[in-house]
Design goal:
The structure is a homodimer of 192-residue chains. With 192 residues, chain A is mainly alpha-helical. Chain A has helices at residues 3-13, 18-27, 37-49, 73-84, 95-102, 108-136, 139-144, 146-174, 187-190, and strands spanning 53-58, 66-71. In chain A, strands 1-2 form a two-stranded antiparallel sheet. In chain A, α1 (3-13) crosses α4 and α6 (108-136) packs antiparallel against α8 (146-174). Chain A starts with a helix and ends with a helix. Chain A binds a DNA duplex (28 and 28 nucleotides) through residues 1, 3, 17-19, 35-39, 41-43, 45, 60, 62-67.
DNA sequence: CGAGACATGTAACCTGTTACATGATTCC
DNA sequence: GGAATCATGTAACAGGTTACATGTCTCG
């Protein structure tokens, strides 16, 4: 149930609507967190019931009215308790690795396609991080949360290293003999 | 709904009971997959209803009787279709990274403890892989699934690289000034 | 004598996803 | 004119976890 802490974390920076939080997840946190918007709205209501956040409704002309959430003292305590607690053991479910584990059932060129698809994903992800770096250099954000910023920049660096390690592994794999060539099934016919 | 494919994958190697599958998840697949046993039993029943697997009951003296599942032709086709399909976009939820993102709220020595805890986890994981390597060298398994084995050994290598990248990043972080020393709050008193 | 392996399952619950409803404004 | 942005929510469903029940054998 870490969604609760993700929400508290975002609200500890600044009051926000459910919609704002969703956007932040998708932008600056997308490489380690995500949540469906209807889940966010639901969880925020529960958290208000539990006294971790409070909200006020703001009417807007020409736009739907919005509910702005603020973290409470109890909410901040809850967040800090979690941050300081011993992490629950993490169980991983990685569909990509699951595929690799059994991909030997398919012919080599189809396995190759899977690897290349993944390389593409990793490359785009790596590119995205450059734009995220910029985000952290926004002066307003910077001055308000210097301590958090230091960690977030290191986190970004760590993620880049990890992703690069995976990418290098895949590229090495793609050069393996027996997988290296995308199959030339009709070399003779094509020359005619 | 990748659990279904994980189960089909395991059954494609060899018939098995729910209990066997659980053990395999926990042993050779634990670094990229896991599932709760009651979930496995439930899903196997549904898959039998859908014709992807079939089962027979085997009575045992002095042990509870067991239900042995076998993959069907339809099951193998379903598995191969999935293996060859374009992967769904993967959304990540990583509670550890979420913690790092907000850990700046806590004093440095508590953040340090979190990093060290993670280093410990990574180190044990890395050690486990050595024993997994041995598993793949089991001659019986080897001869039956040579093609899968090739991939699985590379997968293991990839995982090691990725984990090592994370570990190196953490160790570098721990040497950062301002985080490097585990606070010496009572250097004078302890010398007495 | 207690813990753990063996072996399967149900019920209740929590978490997460999809589909749907609403409706103005802005940008292409 | 259509898509995207802003903004919130409900209902139904799918996927995953926890607690519980049952009972024998083996090993320390």
């Amino acid at each position: 149930m870490s969604l609760r802490y993700a929400l508290l974390g975002v609200l500890s920076l600044k009051e926000a609507t459910g919609y704002d939080i969703k956007r932040r997840f998708d932008r600056s946190m997308q490489f380690f967190w995500n949540a469906d918007d209807s889940q966010i709205y639901r969880e925020l209501r529960t958290m208000e019931r539990d006294g971790l956040v409070c909200s006020r409704l703001e009417e807007q002309a020409a736009r739907p009215s919005k509910r702005i959430y603020q973290i409470t003292g109890a909410g901040e305590r809850e967040l800090d308790d979690w941050l300081g607690s011993v992490p629950e053991r993490q169980y991983i479910k990685d569909p990509f690795m699951l595929r690799i584990f059994f991909i030997g059932r398919l012919p080599a060129h189809r396995a190759r396609a899977l690897l290349q698809h993944r390389c593409g994903e990793l490359t785009t992800a790596l590119a995205t991080f450059e734009s995220n770096r910029q985000y952290y250099q926004d002066p307003g954000y910077r001055s308000r949360h210097e301590d958090l910023l230091w960690w977030q920049m290191h986190l970004l660096e760590g993620t880049v290293r990890v992703l690069r390690a995976e990418l290098e592994w895949l590229q090495k794999l793609l050069r393996e003999p027996g997988l290296a060539l995308p199959e030339e099934p009709s070399a003779m016919e094509s020359s005619s």
